[in-house]
Structures are given as structure tokens and as C-alpha cells.
Amino acid sequence: MPNWCYMECTFYADDENKGELLRLHKTLSAIMQTPSEVENGFESGCLSKVAINHGVDLQKISCRGTIELLGDYEPGSSFFALEAETAWAPTDDLWEAVISQYKGVSFVYIAEEPGMGIFVNTDTEGIYFPCNYLLEIYSEELVPKGWHIDSDKPDYIDIREYFGSIEELMDYCTAYMGRKFSTIEELQGYLSDIFDELGNSFANIREFAAE
Q1: SS3 label, residue 55
Q2: 94 and 194 housed in the same domain
Q3: Are 64 and 2 in contact (CB under 8 A)?
């Protein structure tokens, strides 16, 4: 059983190539609507179907996974989104092979698979995915004194927040935890001292790489 990687892609094109973007969306939409093929193990939205449809060699490029959601394409728009679950790692090689058949279409993606330590965001300009850091804190055992917790949920902590910059992360933590932090290392050390030895608790700061 693989670890499943969450992957969200945005496909985009300039005005001159919007027709190619629409063609790609129509192709993916048709694949999503085809019935599952039980004898081949292909579910609706299976990435293997995407690969076969585009002549991609299943033996050379990883395509284990499924499209979970295909966003709508608004007439005249310059982009559309897609969400997928893939085995172990993002399937960027597959999408590179696919879009090579659509003139002027590009894509960026964000992917997360904590078990493999994968946190990737290829949108370096932050146009579609303006997030570079993820703060995760969960505890059923301890709410530290001085933290400005949700008054409706005073007995546990459940935080999952994305940030575009270190400054945004630090400002959030300063406001929430009631103390100022200068570096990520300082913040992580503070959180580790509190939560590492507790059961039903964890605290992580994830930084997204560009690739």
C-alpha cells in the first residue's frame, strides 16, 4: 500500500493558446467521465487513462493515481485547476509529457506527502499557489499558557495554516502564542520542547521546495 501524495496543478496559457488549454480540459473531462475498467484496475479519472490517451509509455513514466477533482474551465479563462492523489510522489513527469502535446500550455503544482518528506511548490512567483510554509500543530493533551486559542475549542489545538513568507509565519505565531520569534529554528525548538514528548500531539513547520 503506497503513501498517497496530494497534488494540485494549475494549467495555464496566454491568450494566443487558450484554444489549446480548452482542448486539454475537454480531453481530461472526457477521461473523467469514462466508466471504470475493473478488468484493468482503471478507475474513472485514473492517471493511466490519461497516459494511454496521450501515448505515454506506462513502463517509463509513473502514473499511479487518480484525478480527484477537475476544476471548471470558464470560457476565455487563462487557467484551470486539477487535484490528484498519486503514489509516493507527484507525477510531474506525466504532466510534462501530456502538455508537450498542447501548444503553449504550461503548468505549476503544489504537492504534499509528509511520509516521504515531500513538500513541493513549483509556482515560484506565487501566482496560483502563494504558499511557502505550512504550520501544523495538533494536541489533545496540552494547551500552553499564554496561547490565544479558539474560545469554542479550549481543550485542544488543531492548526493547519499556510504562509507565503517567513514574516507572515512569524507574525501569526507571535499573535497566537503570545511571544516573539526571530527564526524558524527558534520557533521549531520552542514547539519541539513542548510537544515532542507528548502523545496525541505534534508540531511541524514544513518548507516547500521549488522542485
Answers
A1: coil
A2: no
A3: yes
Output the tens digit of pLDDT for each of the chain's 211 residues.
Answer: 678 999 999 999 999 999 999 999 999 999 988 775 545 555 668 899 999 999 999 899 989 999 999 999 998 899 999 999 999 999 999 999 999 999 999 999 999 999 999 999 999 999 999 999 999 999 988 889 889 876 666 678 999 999 999 999 999 999 999 999 989 999 999 999 999 988 889 999 999 999 7
For residue 46, give the DSSP letter.
Answer: B
Domain closes at, from 85, 100, 121: 121
Q: Does one domain contain both 24 and 69? A: yes
* Lookup result for grid cell 513502463: 59
Contact, 210 vs 124, CB < 8 A? Answer: yes
Same-domain pairing of 66 and 91: yes
Range of the domain at 21: 4-121
Q: Provide the whole-model pTM.
A: 0.89
Reduced to 3 states, what is the DSSP secondary structure of residue 8? strand
Residue 155: inside a domain: yes
Same domain (yes/no): 111, 165: no
* DSSP per-residue letters across 16-44: GGHHHHHHHHHHHHHHHHSPPBGGGTB-T
Domain count, the chain: 2
